[in-house]
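Lab notebook, bench 4. The sequencing result for the construct came back, and we need a structural model before the next group meeting so we can plan mutations. Quick request posted to the team channel:

Model the 3D structure of this chain.
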Amino acid sequence: ACKLLDLLTTLSPDEFQLHEWLYITDTIDAVYRPVDLNPVALTDEAAEALGMESSEHSAFTPATTIGNSSSEAGARRPFLGGSVVDGADTKAMARDDFLRSVLQPFFSQLSMYSYEATYSMSVPDVELCRRGLLEDILDESTMA
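Done. Here's the predicted structure in token form:
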């Protein structure tokens, strides 16, 4: 579910933009969070429930800075890219470790990441998104 939300915010199709406020904060509050803000977006509520503010993981950066020879420079890339944690390591992680190292940063920073990506006027790296989606769909270790 998180990867799907990540792809939807990266690609930002017209059909999703109408409903994205349900999932992420798409206003300036995503970057400059007021102290008395009561979160409406599901990812912000999840981050709050997990007890994490976006400032706590300012050192965590998504896969936007990683160069890829086949992708355009400055293109928007999914937050949960390969740089977060190696795919094999993710499956071997204990649930608490996965929650702390992958999901908490994702929930706490997705709104800000999406807001900044939208106003940077960069285009999404569609080929990288397509490859990631195909890898997830064709991953034999997740098939029953």
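The chain has one domain: 2-136.
Will bring this to the meeting.
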